[in-house]
Amino acid sequence: MTLIGPLVLASFLFCVGLYGVIARRNSVLVLMSVELMLNAVNINLVAFQSLLHGDDAAVTGQIFALFVIVVAAAEVGIGLAIVFNMFRNRASIDIDDADLMRW
Amino acid sequence: MEALNYAWIVVALPLLAAAVIAVFGKLMPLKGSEVGIAAITGAWVLSLVIGWQTFVNGPVDALEQVFWSSPMGGAFTIEFGQYVDGLTAMMLVLVTTVSMLVQLYSREYMHGEDRFTYFFSMLALFTFSMLVLVIAPNTLQAVVGWELVGLCSYLLIGYYWQDKPNADAANKAFLTTKFADIGLIVGVVVLSAGVAQHSNNVFSIPETIDLAMGGQLSELTVVLGTLMIFLGAMGKSGQMPLHVWLPDAMAGPTPVSALIHAATMVTAGVFFVARLYPVFIQYATVMNVIAVVGVITLFFAGFLALVQDDVKKVLAYSTVSQLGYMMAALGVGGYTAGIFHLFTHGFFKALLFLGSGSLIHAVHSNNMSDMGGMRKYMPVTFVTFVIGSLALAGFPLTAGFFSKDEILVSAQLWGDAGMATGPLVYWLGLAGAMVTTFYMGRTVFLIFFGEHRGAHGAAHDVETVEDVHAEAEAGVLDAEAEAEDAAQAAHDVQGGHHDPHESGWQILTALVALAVFSFPVGMAGGFLWDEVGGSTEQNFETWTATHAIEEAQYPFLPGYHAPGGEEHGEEGASEGEGGEAEDPEAAGSGSIVLASGEDLSGPLAAESGDEEGFSNHVLHGAPEFHLDVFLLALAGFLIAVGGAWAIYGRGRPERDPTLHMGGFTTALVNKYWLDDLGYRFVVVPIRDRLAPAVSWSSNVLIDGVVKSIGGGVKRLANVTYFTVDQKIIDGGVNGAALSAAWWSSKLKRLQSGDVQRYAGAMMAGVIVLVIAFAAAR
Amino acid sequence: MTGLDVIFILLALMTGGAAILTVISRNLVHAALFLATTLAGIGAIFILMRADFVGLVQIVVYVGAITVLFLFGLMLTRAPIGREALDSRSQPMALAVSATLFVVLTTLIVLAFGDVASTEPTGVPITELGTAIFSEWVFPFEVVSMLLLAALVGAVLLARRDSGESGEEADVEIILDALPTPADVEADRREAAAELAHPDNVTASPQASGGGQ
After folding, report:
1. CA distance C53 to chain B (A)
2. Which of B78, B176, B286, B292 could form an SS bridge with B245, CB 3.0 to 4.6 Å?
3. C57 at the B interface (CB within 8 A)?
4. Which of B734, B760, B774 sits opposite C90 (nearest CB)?
5. What pLDDT does residue B453 have?
6. How many Å separate Cα B366 from the centre of its chain?
7. Which stretches within B364-420 are classed as H helix?
8. CB neighbours of B15 closer than 8 A, spacing ≥ 6?
9. Numbers of helices and strands, H then E, in chain B
């Protein structure tokens, strides 16, 4: 199995996630796109572990992937809580409306 | 000797406290005072350890450490470090003890003042400055500490700057001492120029002392340098005629007077002379100048205290007089006696000032004419004040008795050696002691005996200096003086609306502690030291003596052995060969010339057994009992106290005899016209002659030139203004402003508040960076 | 081109397609379901690379939990479930940036790893993984557990209805009224333009002061 396949897939997923983060209006969708980006990183970590450094006994790549999953779960929790708050205060979860910091 | 290594902590703690109080003081529950007291208590404990270590070990090798040095090119190096020996340790103990008690006292005395925190910060800063001076291993650091001390003094005298007289007093003190400081700096530079020919460390105090004792500095260098340094010391230590600032400095709060203007700062001059003492004793001229200035100060300043009504002024003049004692002692070879008096005086004068502060706190007036009968109201203050007064007057067994006795004995020995200043200091010192006793008796009787005069506003038994003026001018008490008295009475009624009461525990703690200290500190240096269980191996003399002082001799007295004399001919020769490169040790060993050939461990015994009857060494050995001195001093004391009791014992007399001594009183009231002299011969010539002359030359001569140039320039300026300024520069400025406005109106759209756009822009930047890094690989 | 590669390519096509559909879908619930598909595909790829444990965690945590969480989020925020414009005005920029980034990253990956030989994926026994987590990585593990706890508390605090003033059921209309309307913004803009158009007011003052000299 080639290494380059998972890497290209990861970079593709990352860019799709980035597109979602920048282009989507709905904050929940933005959070979903962030999840995509985090998962792309996980693919990288696992692929390097499995296909490039397989002879090393270390399991660092997979453990890192697990940590990223945990942190991502925490991030979703906090992110959704923020979205709820925003919805409660402004009756909208459109990121376009959250522009109080403009000039 | 380990504790000596940490002497710098004693210095650092107050600085830390000052900084912490200045920054966080207002936030603290006790407004920063707790930090100051905690820091100074820590410093005090460490000082006691250092003092004890140096005390039990006798004359110690000075510990010299340099913490920071900066070569400035050539022989010029700036160093900061510590130099710890017995003298330093003694000053550390004195400064930290008084400072600690004064801070405790100020907690109560300054309670509720504006700028309470500032006050404590300044007290801590002052303590730090004084310790920097005390611990200085080189003259440059000493100058730094000296000036910092002057600054703190200025700031604290002017603490109540809202009143113009106080601000004026601060200015006067600052300018007077600053004038003297010119002398100090010139002296330091002159000495360092001499040292520079032999050593690279030009400001080092030990090297200066070694070179001076080895006779390697020229006469001009030593005499000029030491006299100039002495000028600085005269200013700081209030020697006549530069004492004029010291009484005015009483404008500051009383704790400041106690700490700065009685116990510690004013001793800086005496301390510095003592620090460089082996240099000062090289020439008889210098010693005579010191002795004469000291004796004039001690004798004449005492009289000034006679006519004062303000209790703080009495104490201020008494301080001047006692500083005169110290200087005179140094001038007649009484090294130990001088600094011993410095040490004891620090305690009992601080006690007296704090006691007077307690009184002032109670009656809301500085004037003795508003007090009287206070012993009934303030018993603790009364007892402690009397103890302080007895010590100051030299009552037997008090601290002041021993130190004054030492000074007189030193003067006697100096006279025996054939120096004319010896008897002068001896007899005038005795007379000065009588005067001191008399005015202290007057003060005590006026304040504590008789009836209380303040609250009841008995206007007409109050006779003040102003009344005497009025009497002298008009012959009788005229209407104006009557009005003045009435005003004073009215003030009294307002101010003293209740009976005075004893102060709180913080003031009393400080008073009692200092009163208790007033006894043992005198024992260590007195002739009774043996009797109370002390050892002759360890007394005040061995404590404050350094090896340099032990080896020091007076070159101008008989019995002097030149360094490298016949006994040490070989060493002398090697010194000659060594030239500049010789180390201080060699120079030192060359000058250890003991008449009977003992080794270093017994120099004191060697001196007492000198066959010529007078040792030309600085140290006299353990103090002995001199019956004649004792009897004369005691007789003087009794006569003066008796006189004071006879006049003032039953309260304030109708006619205060000190105010009715004709021309003498006039002279005293006018402070020997010294202020007038200063005004007439310094201020007036500058104002009336120099200033108008300068003004004329500037008006007529320089203005002409300036005007013609000015005309041309004006024309040029007009052209410049209308073309260059208005058209080009203003156009440019306005254009810049307009373009900035235009651009900002466009660029502000970038700040859309749209986080997604920001994210996109950030990623675009990341892409650029990635490409750049990849291309750079 | 081994069998694994074929399976991988199929999985990758499914995952990538689902990812694209996630970010362009006009229906929010569909987007969430596409996201679940994508995450499941990634889990399958993990298993393909013989990282079995990570793959299973991926499926359990993401497909099981997080997707449901997102669906709850969508429901609770009363998101418009239906076809409507979900793209912001930054959409062209997003397309440009992500396309450029993809090109750059792919180029770099091919340059850096293009010559790595094709190998069999090496698996790690799950016992070894567990041992490593609880020996070598035990400190980060504990830190991450603290992080989770903090996130839990934080999320509760943020989402609670009565947490401070912002927790009140806000009167949305008042807030919306207080915000500058597009008309206000336009008025400001016109005002600024008017100032720029008449610079005399600015230049007048230096001349006045110049006359006084």
Report:
1. 33
2. B176
3. no
4. B760
5. 67
6. 23
7. 374-377, 379-393, 399-416
8. B124, B125, B128
9. 37, 2
Cβ within 8 Å of residue B143, ≥6 positions away: B184, B185, B188
Q: Do B757 and C90 touch (CB under 8 A)?
A: yes
Q: Is A56 helix (H, G, I), strand (E, B) or coil?
A: coil
User: Does B754 sit within 8 Å of A96, measured CB to CB?
Assistant: yes
Report pTM.
Answer: 0.57
Between β-strands B63-71 and B77-84, what pairing exists: parallel, antiparallel or unpaired? antiparallel
A: neighbours with 3+ CB pairs under 8 Å? B, C
**Whether B187 contacts B228, CB under 8 Å:** yes
State how far the Cα of B595 lies from the Cα of B478, in Å rounded to an integer.
72
Closest CA to B441 of B648, B636, B631: B648
Q: Do B753 and A95 touch (CB under 8 A)?
A: no
The token duo for B100 is 């600690």
Reported as a pLDDT band with limits 50, 70 and 90, residue A53 is confident
User: Cβ A1–C49 below 8 Å, yes or no?
Assistant: yes
Q: Which ipTM did the prediction report? A: 0.90
Residues of chain B contacting C202 with CB distance shorter than 8 Å? 734, 737-738
d(CA B679, CA B685) in angstroms, rounded, equals 9
CB-based contact A22 B748, cutoff 8 Å: no
- On whether the CB atoms of residues B385 and B446 are closer than 8 A, the answer is no
- The distance of B734 to chain C (nearest Cα, Å) reads 7
Q: How far apart are CA B318 and CA B241, in angstroms?
A: 15
| Maximum CA extent, chain C | 93
Q: How far apart are CA B413 and CA B332, in angstroms?
A: 9
Q: What is the mean pLDDT of each run of 10 residues along chain B (777 residues)?
A: 75 86 76 81 87 75 75 69 83 87 84 80 88 86 88 84 80 83 87 80 81 80 87 85 80 83 82 86 84 85 79 85 87 83 85 85 75 76 84 79 81 79 83 84 80 53 45 43 47 50 77 79 66 62 72 69 42 37 38 37 39 56 70 79 74 60 65 66 68 74 80 84 80 85 83 81 90 84
pLDDT given at position B544: 73
Q: Residue C85 and residue C98: Cα distance in Å, rounded? A: 20
B741/C213 CB distance under 8 A: no
